[in-house]
Amino acid sequence: MKEFLEKLVSYIASEGVLYEIKEELSDGLTTYTILVPEEEIGKIIGKEGKVISAIRTLCRLKATKEQKRILIKVDRIQ
């Protein structure tokens, strides 16, 4: 799933931008945090949250097929 999410983010983020995806497992729920520079957060979230919503939908479909529970968050790189 992490590789799938990385591929989606790579298509959206500007070329050459460093980003990171953290994965945390807790009580059967896997949380993925997309860490991007502050100036790239708008691209990942999209107008009215449509881009992140689409990312979440695609990942949720894949997770459902694999019988997993996921949560996707976006944050800035420190």
Description:
There is one protein chain. With 78 residues, the chain is an alpha+beta fold. The protein has a single domain, classed as GMP Synthetase, Chain A, domain 3 (2-Layer Sandwich), CATH 3.30.300.20. The protein is built from 3 helices and 3 strands, in the order H-E-E-H-H-E. The chain has helices at residues 2-12, 41-45, 50-65, and strands at 20-26, 29-36, 69-76. The chain has a 3-stranded mixed β-sheet with strand order 1-2-3. It starts with a helix and ends with a strand. The mean pLDDT is 95. Keywords: Cytoplasm, RNA-binding. One of its GO terms (molecular function) is RNA binding.
Write the layout of secondary structure elements.
Layout: H1 2-12, E1 20-26, E2 29-36, H2 41-45, H3 50-65, E3 69-76
Parallel strand pairs: 2-3
Antiparallel strand pairs: 1-2
Protein name: RNA-binding protein
InterPro entries: KH_dom-like_a/b (IPR015946), KH_sf_prok-type (IPR009019), KhpA (IPR020627)
GO molecular function, one term: RNA binding
